[in-house]
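Batch job 17 of 40 flagged for manual review because the log was empty.
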Amino acid sequence: MARRVPAIQIYALLPKTNCRKCGVPTCMAFAIKLSAGEAEVDACPQLTPQNRIKLQELLAPPVRRIVIGVGSRTLKIGGEEVLYRHEKRFNSPTAIAVALSDTLSQERLKEAVAQVASFNIERMGQPLRVDALAVIDEANSPESFSMAVELASFSGLPLVLSSRRPEVLEAGLKVCGDLRPLIHAANSDNYIQMVELAARFNCPLAIAGEGLDNVIDVVNRVAEFGLEDLVLDLTGRNPRSTLSSLTLARGLAVRFNVKGFGYPLMVFSPSYTGYGVYEAAILEAAMVARYVSLLIIPSAEPWRLLPVLVTRQNLYTDPQSPVQVKPGLYEVNKPDENSPVLVTTNYALTFHSVLEDARASGVPCWILVVNTEGLSVATSIGGKKLTADVFIEAVKSSGLNERIKRKTLIIPGIAARFKGMVEEGTGWKVVVGPRESAGLTKFLRSYAAQ
């Protein structure tokens, strides 16, 4: 279950003045909002410094939130409180970074950086983008690494600098240390030098090791230096060990509050021998589902990025607040007063599927989006959010009667049973369309040819 601090425990640390400066009537009401995660500690101006620190520690999520980058190019990972999103919600979507080797030529590096920076595909009205670039030390040369880092910094994206050699990382940090990249990685052999670099440049530090026991040992050693902004690299020898480590580490942090594992988790998606394109996509999607906070993949090709970006988008939505679009009337392909009107729900995935398939037909039409509280057509019909009365009211309230001369509604095939009632209630001709949006392009072209 989601961790929740009792409101009475929070109230004990509040000033109890009921000053209302936090925006609620009483300190108890503010405590209840803090307990529910609906307010911030800093909203109380009368907290003593000591109690403010105590409250922040009391309410801190079991997985520490880490910030990579500065200013407009910051990336926040971690901050998770639950293992299953139906318990509450996931807070920070998995960050996707693309790896760049410092063995590439300058021209190839420039091309790769430009490709990553410009990648942007819209789905459900939301942009799907890469979140960061990871510069990988493969040349064993501080000069090559610093050159690659400099080119990567022009992307405007947060950076991950990856090397096990402190002198190589120092060369890269001299180029972009003020951008607060993630330093990767400290292990049992180099952690003292890595801690010194992280402290000097004020950067978060990734910890890597052979297995969970080794990782937690390095975490404990690093903690002695007072470093708190850590990320745990749990890349294993094979997919099974990686997925097992991710699951166990997050469970220990969230369910059992084991402090050593209370940090964001990262994984390099390696090319495991015997795994092809499809297997790699499945493994990366599985890693997103198994709590990885930062996933570094080796390619910026769309076929490699899209599966993991779509998986992330699907998982990191609030299940209690479906992704919705605004109800109303939308134009497609420059419709006029004689164009048909398609009717669908305001669930974002449904709407954008209908929109793109209608556009692809080339047929001018309107889309009337009705408010079903973000539910799909089938779900809203089953839950009685989409009924004949809803269709009728949507037509009347939309102003369509005044705008459209050739009054033709096209309703989803799954809603065919409402046809007669809607015709009677609106006076419009109702045409039953395909059951799935995938059939809409062909349907509209056939309809227009009549």
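Reviewer: the log was empty due to a logging misconfiguration, but the result itself is present. The longest strand covers residues 95-101. Unflagging and moving on to job 18.
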